[in-house]
Design goal:
The chain has 263 residues and is of the alpha/beta class. The chain folds into 2 domains: 6-103 and 234-262, Leucine Dehydrogenase, chain A, domain 1 (Rossmann fold, 3-Layer(aba) Sandwich); 108-228, 3-Layer(aba) Sandwich (Rossmann fold), CATH 3.40.50. Helix content is 32%, strand content 23%. It contains 8 helices and 12 strands. The protein has helices at residues 21-32, 48-57, 82-87, 105-114, 131-142, 215-222, 230-246, 252-259, and strands spanning 6-13, 35-42, 60-65, 79-80, 92-96, 99-103, 123-127, 146-151, 162-165, 177-180, 203-206, 226-228. The chain has a 6-stranded mixed beta sheet with strand order 2-1-3-5-6-4, sandwiched between helices. Strands 9-8-7-10-11-12 form a 6-stranded parallel beta sheet. The mean pLDDT is 94.
Length: 263
């Protein structure tokens, strides 16, 4: 008889107190009746090597990474999947004999959702310059999009075909896809007065998930534009971690149930 999965899992980030990942995974573990536990770990970039080592010693089998660790973790991994190689960022680690095996389930989740909007001669704008922006750019490029980036630190948008200063984010377009890969609009963060929006048959995507219905997405909906919220992507990427950690499909219905109060 196959042993049930067990052990310790976590999300590392700074800040990380807002994360819904423990709720999502622990609800899934409960539904599956597994003796596995998922916790959040506050971790700054300079603490990552020591905390990863400590987590492994405590029996950690797998973890997720949120900002600002998705790029910082790369020198600390043993092997990486194709999405990590393409994006230069990782959000999921799996314990392996040679250290940590890295994956980017953010990329795979977004890839599946964007596929219906792919086509020739399509342009996309990504707001932000961190790990999520890099992941988003890799996905859009895989679908054939021409990708521009707008950021407060535009020199970090080395993944973009064109870079816009943040103050110029409204000056170009039209865009088929616009992605907010910044924390702007998140609970506890500032927002902006105006957002660049996609054309009428395009797609607006916000990686922010608290709230799920952000000001950016509200603006897109007012124009009749399709939207994809960060809460949907959060559950998607969480579910994609389970086959990597356990070799089991995730209980998607239970995970979606866990986040319903935040809809």
């Amino acid at each position: 008889m196959q042993a049930q999965p067990s052990g310790l899992y976590a999300v590392f980030g700074h800040p990380v107190g807002h994360s819904l990942s423990p709720l999502i995974h622990n609800h899934g573990f409960s539904q599956a009746k597994w003796r596995a536990f998922y916790v959040s770990v506050e971790c700054a970039v300079e603490e990552l090597p020591d905390k990863l080592a400590a987590f492994r010693l405590l029996g950690g089998h797998g973890l997720n990474l949120t900002r600002p660790l998705k790029e910082a973790v790369l020198p600390l991994i043993g092997e990486a999947d194709d999405w990590v190689e393409r994006s230069g960022a990782a959000n999921t680690l799996v314990a392996a004999p040679n250290g940590w095996r890295a994956a980017n389930t953010d990329c795979e989740a977004l890839f599946r959702r964007v596929k219906p909007y792919a086509g020739e001669n399509r342009a996309a704008l990504i707001l932000g310059s961190g790990g999520v922006a890099r992941a988003s750019a890799a996905v859009l490029r895989a679908h054939g999009f021409w990708v521009a980036g707008a950021a407060k630190r535009p020199e970090r948008c080395d993944w973009a075909e064109e870079t816009l200063r943040w103050s110029d984010r409204l000056e170009s377009g039209p865009w088929h896809v616009v992605i907010n890969a910044t924390p702007l609009g998140q609970v506890g963060e500032t927002s902006v007065g105006e957002w660049p929006l996609p054309g009428p048959e395009g797609l607006a995507i916000d990686w922010v998930y608290r709230p799920a219905n952000t000001g950016f997405l509200q603006g897109a909906k007012s124009l009749g534009v399709d939207t994809l919220d960060g809460l949907t992507l959060l559950v998607d990427q969480a579910a994609l971690a389970w086959p990597l950690w356990f070799g089991h499909e995730a209980p998607l219905a239970a995970m979606l149930e866990a986040v319903q109060p935040w809809r």
